[in-house]
Amino acid sequence: MNHKTKGALKLLLTLFVGAAILFVAVVGVGQDKKGSVKGVHLGLDLAGGVSITYETVKEDPTAEEMKDTIYKLQKRVDDSGQTEANVYQEGANRINVDIPGATDAEETLKALGKVGEIFFVLGTGNITTGESESGYVLTKTLEEIREKGDIILDGTDIAGAEAGFYTNQMGLSENVVSLTLNEVGAKKFGTATAKHVGEAIAIVYDGKVVSAPVVQQALTDGKAQITGRFDAEEANNLATTIRVGALPLELRELRSNVVGASLGQEAVSTSLTAAVIGLVLVLIFMAFRYRVPGVAADLALCIYVGLMVVCLNLLEVTLTLPGLAGIILSIGMAVDANIIIFSRIQEEIGVGKTVRTAIRLGFSKAFSAIVDGNITTLIAAAVLYMLGSGTIKGFATTLALGIVLSMFTALAVTRFILYALYDFGFDNEKSFGQVVGYKQVEFTKHGKKYALISGMLILACVAGMLVGKFTTGEILAYGLDFKGGTAMTVTFPGDVEPTISELEGAVRTAIGEEATVNLVNGANAAMIKTKELSEEKRAALTNYLVDSYNVNEAEIEIQSISGTVSGEMKRDAIVAVLVATVCMLIYIWFRFSNLAFAASAVLALIHDVLIVLMIYSVGRVSVGNTFIACMLTIVGYSINATIVVFDRIRENLKEQLKKETFRDIVNKSIAQTFTRNIYTSLTTFVMVAALVIFGVNSIREFAFPLMAGIICGAYSSICITGLLWLKLREKLPQAEEE
Fold first, then answer.
1. What SS3 state is found at 519?
2. What's the CA gap between 212 and 165, in Å, rounded?
3. How does pLDDT run across 587-641, given as a tens digit for each residue?
4. 673 and 689 in contact (C-beta within 8 Å)?
5. Per mean pLDDT, which range of 101-105, 135-139, 329-333 is the poorest?
6. Rounded to whole angstroms, how far apart are CA atoms 238 and 548?
7. d(CA 465, CA 453)
């Protein structure tokens, strides 16, 4: 078989596999159309879902009790697989849970479990065998048991419960529920179990006995295992019951609704259009600039998009606007990996290597930069997923998935296609684009100018925050997600059916405020959320709706709501980012065997985040859930761009000539990666710019700071990172090369 036939077969195989993947992504397979884009779970902002309102049984709960309940309920919802769900306070004693993608309120409530109250009760004299799922019933009321002093633990003593299995003395695996208590609960449980060895302790949830394990020994370390003849599903249900019942406050369902997308169909359709336009422009650029390799990259990128859709569907990932940020970043990294490879191939052709040798060396030399950049970002995604909650988990999921797929398509698929094209006959040097040499520029001699520019931008960030603090009382323009506001549920007459954009306009006209609107499916009603309104503005909006839509004022319900990003979630986000940063620093230190590389990468990352923060503070851009996703995207983009430059510095250090100084090495490395930085920034910028041009206002608020972050990432990788490494290399003695 000659090379041309071999290449033709490879291309046919590529086209067949690619077409199959895209077919599954667009159409799907089977009766349920598994794998298709239509089957991707969209979040509440993109496709709506179920909104549940709970009310506390206790009439006047404290702020601390409400805060703890909201946090634990958010964790409970996250554990159920709803990583993009929002839990927030409404009024003084209500809690809202927004579940994206759900279409059946009753099924959602069943999946979450009834949020009742849990107690661990001494079994002796308080339970007996009877008709129930557990086989036991209470012989006394909980009030009588409490008066008797036989309640050992309640929900406030429980830290967690997980289903698992253990190996018994016979060597067989048995299902088990592992219980973890807090410090107070551990003391109470230790005393009770020591006193009642051989007796049963009943777990009573919502007034019913769900399990009655027998105490085998004193348990004083705050941990216990509940064993019994139950299967994995029963063990998981018991663990879930204990976790739900461990909420500080007992809750009862007040109402549940299926609501429409908060961004509206217009936002979804325009965002999709923008994404397609941006992707097409990137494909055209790659083919025009890199010719045959560009075509190979385009085919690989199409396969990447198809695989991404299929995996999002099969893994049942809930996709929201922050999740889209992770996909945008991973597409940018996929294009970036190809640009790094192709730049290396062109360099090798430029020094006289044959095309086939240049391809082999191009992939080989680009490998370390691609792997280090992607693994560093993957580490951050893993930490964010493990320690974050809600939006952060969703962002981390799509980012991690995108990184894995982008590495595969860049290093395996693009390579396969490129060799196929070469074998088919595209083996001429001219087919691989114009070989662009680098011009030696003294980038480092302008260090003071770069420092001045960065310093002024960071000072502008601080100034913007101070001005905001003195003028509005807030350093940033916090939106509903952070501050909370006013929620209005409005029921319209049967012949009136306003759209989301119409109602948003009505709110602006009536009181001059922006609003988030969800239409309630199955009822001619809408949920309107704005920033906290004064009594005067509440009355003005109510009157406008009554006059304009003939609404019955008695059917308008108004409540104050808390932010969906609670204090604990903010803390989790900060901790996750800090831990991720430390982990990235350690990885870079390990891979580059030089502390200066790691320290300067983190400093460059902080520099980029501060400048993007300046956009938010000076431009008073609304800070909501997408703010967290935007900042995390900048972190991933910044660290990836920095590693590309550092990889060249590391390589050039190994080949350092006697006459070359470290400053010369930095200048050469920046010059060699200059076009890569510009092209990668350009392609990613085009993707985001399309969202700004074609997207609705809520999308622009998210995309505009991202554009600033992309520009900043390119600037810092060219002007900042190399200089930081030079300075830190002089300051850190352990940074000397071996």
1. strand
2. 18
3. 888 888 888 888 888 888 888 888 888 888 888 877 776 677 677 777 777 887 8
4. no
5. 101-105
6. 52
7. 19
Which residue would you say has higher pLDDT here, 40 or 373? 373
What 22-26 contacts at long range (C-beta under 8 Å, 24+ apart), as own/partner pairs, is 22/302, 22/303, 22/306, 24/306, 24/310, 25/305, 25/306, 25/307, 25/309, 25/310
* Greatest mean pLDDT among 15-24, 29-38, 223-232, 507-516: 15-24
Distance CA 713, CA 234 (A): 51
Q: Which long-range contacts (CB under 8 A, 24 or more apart) does 385-388 make?
A: 386/576, 387/572, 387/575, 387/576, 387/579, 388/572, 388/573, 388/576
pLDDT reading at 679 higher than 50: yes
State percent of the chain over pLDDT 70. Answer: 83
Distance CA 619, CA 705 (A): 10
Q: What sign results for the dihedral spanned by CA atoms 320, 321, 326, 329?
A: positive
Instruction: Determine the 3-state secondary structure of 515 from DSSP.
Output: coil
pLDDT at 117 over 80: no
d(CA 172, CA 162): 20
Give mean pLDDT, residues 482-497. Answer: 80
DSSP, res 495: T
Say how far apart CA 606 and CA 423 lie, in whole Å. 46
* Structural domains in the chain plus CATH codes: 3-27+265-432 (1.20.1640.10), 49-114 (3.30.70.3400), 118-246 (3.30.1360.200), 447-462+566-735 (1.20.1640.10), 485-561 (3.30.70.2040)
**Confidence category of residue 563, pLDDT binned at 50, 70, 90:** low
Decide if 489 contacts 525 (C-beta within 8 A): yes
Count H helices and E strands in the chain, helices first: 23, 19
- Which residues, 6+ apart, have CB-to-CB distance to 522 below 8 Å? 257, 258
Please give the full DSSP string across 92-121, using - where no structure is assigned: TTEEEEEEET---HHHHHHHH-----EEEE
Quote the distance between the C-alpha of residue 227 and its chain's center: 36
Is the Cβ–Cβ distance between 698 and 621 less than 8 Å? no
DSSP letters for 284-323: HHHHHHHSHHHHHHHHHHHHHHHHHHHHHHHTTPEE-HHH
The candidate with the shortest Cα–Cα distance to 437, out of 665, 648, 668, 653, is: 668
| β-sheet bridge partners, residue 163 | 177
14 close to 412: Cβ distance less than 8 angstroms: no
Return the half-sphere exposure (C-beta side, CA atoms, 13 A cut-off) of residue 122.
21
How far apart are the C-alpha atoms of 83 and 399, rounded to whole Å? 14
Q: pLDDT digits over 338-363, tens only?
A: 888 888 888 888 888 888 898 999 89
pTM for the full predicted model: 0.66
Output the six-digit token pair for 650: 């590391």
Distance, CA of 288 to CA of 286 (rounded, Å): 6
Is the pLDDT at 738 greater than 50? The verdict is no
How far, in Å, CA of 697 to CA of 636, rounded? 25
Place of tokens 């759209």: 499
